[in-house]
């Protein structure tokens, strides 16, 4: 089987279940595991490099208003890879190539590859997507085993934080303007033994104000901007503190959003375990 993965999360899942050798095409964001970088890149960003968070937000808002794509799909590269399976999403036009773009490109090329969309909104759906990919690639046993291991680790965290006080947590999915999280992230906070006081599980992330953040009375602010690693998140966290935008004296923790929060892949459990250790040392 020849697989093109247009999502960093599905790329890491495919490698984790033993289908990495079948992956022939990826996106420019597929950086885990490192071996994924050796595959042909078929999707790149339309956004200029070097933009600040407010500039990125403005670019995205304007592009969405115009109906422009935020990603470029290299149809020639896609055609040359002769894929049997293309994995994409229909969840977020800001996150990756939309399934409609993939369908149009394959139809134009006369390619008969199967298109599989992975659109998890909750943590359970993330785990289900691992099994879906396992069935689609003939690695069902490996996928079931991986999900079992993930659920065991989740259960261990839940048991460790049970009956402990639940600190109030605000997680910032973006910092300028501030966004409260949705989808699986509020669940992650709750499983780690915190109380998510901004954002709704299973829903989209929402724009909030700094007054909203203050009114939420957080004990901890987690800085987890989508697309940023830990070092870049720490830089933004330091900036927020320096500008006095966060409640006075609140604890601030920067995370690797790419690895363990924003991407619905195998490493969300790492984020839950890390946050549990911060909340309940």
The dominant shape is globular
- How many domain units? 2
Give the end-to-end Cα distance, rounded to a whole number of Å: 45 Å
* Weakly predicted, low-confidence segments: none
Give me the number of helical elements: 11
Q: Largest sheet, order of strands side by side?
A: 4-3-2-1-5-6
The main pleated sheet reads as: 6 strands, mixed
Reading off the top of the CATH hierarchy, the class of the largest domain is best stated as: Alpha Beta
Please compute the radius of gyration using only Cα atoms.
19 Å
- Under the CATH scheme, the architecture of the largest domain is 3-Layer(aba) Sandwich
Please report which band the strand proportion falls in: under 5%, 5-15%, 15-25%, 25-35%, 35-45% or over 45%.
15-25%
List the helices and strands and how they pair.
Blueprint: E1 3-5, H1 8-16, E2 23-27, E3 40-45, H2 53-66, E4 71-73, H3 75-81, E5 85-88, H4 99-109, E6 114-117, H5 123-137, H6 140-161, E7 168-172, E8 174-175, E9 178-180, H7 185-191, E10 195-196, E11 206-207, H8 210-215, E12 220-223, H9 230-242, E13 251-254, H10 257-260, H11 268-279
Parallel strand pairs: 1-2, 1-5, 2-3, 5-6, 7-10, 7-12, 12-13
Antiparallel strand pairs: 3-4, 8-9, 9-11
Helix pairs in contact: 5-6, 6-11
InterPro entries: ABC_transptr_periplasmic_BD, Vitamin_B12-ABC_binding
Domain Fe/B12 periplasmic-binding: 2-281
Protein name: Cobalamin-binding protein
């Amino acid at each position: 089987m020849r697989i093109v993965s247009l999502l960093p999360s599905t790329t890491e899942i495919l490698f984790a279940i033993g289908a990495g050798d079948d992956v022939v095409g990826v996106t420019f964001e597929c950086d885990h595991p490192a071996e994924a970088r050796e595959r042909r890149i078929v999707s790149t960003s339309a956004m200029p490099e070097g933009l600040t968070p407010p500039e990125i937000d403005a670019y995205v808002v304007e592009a969405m208003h115009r109906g422009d794509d935020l990603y470029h799909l290299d149809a020639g590269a896609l055609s040359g890879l002769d894929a049997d399976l293309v994995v994409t999403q229909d969840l977020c036009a800001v996150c990756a190539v939309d399934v409609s773009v993939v369908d149009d490109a394959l139809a134009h090329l006369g390619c008969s590859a199967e298109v599989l969309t992975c659109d998890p909104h909750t943590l359970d759906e993330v785990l289900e997507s691992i099994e879906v990919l396992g069935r689609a690639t003939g690695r069902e046993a490996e996928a079931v085993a991986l999900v079992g291991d993930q659920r065991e680790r989740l259960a261990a965290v839940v048991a460790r934080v049970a009956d402990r006080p639940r600190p109030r947590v605000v997680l910032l999915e973006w910092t300028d303007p501030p966004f409260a999280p949705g989808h699986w992230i509020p669940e992650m906070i709750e499983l780690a033994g915190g109380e998510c006081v901004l954002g709704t599980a299973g829903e989209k992330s929402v724009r909030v104000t700094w007054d909203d953040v203050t009114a939420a009375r957080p004990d901890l602010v987690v800085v987890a901007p989508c697309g940023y690693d830990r070092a870049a998140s720490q830089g933004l966290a330091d900036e927020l503190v320096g500008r006095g935008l966060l409640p006075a004296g609140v604890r601030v923790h920067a995370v690797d959003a790419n690895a363990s929060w924003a991407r619905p892949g195998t490493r969300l459990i790492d984020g839950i375990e890390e946050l549990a250790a911060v909340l309940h040392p």
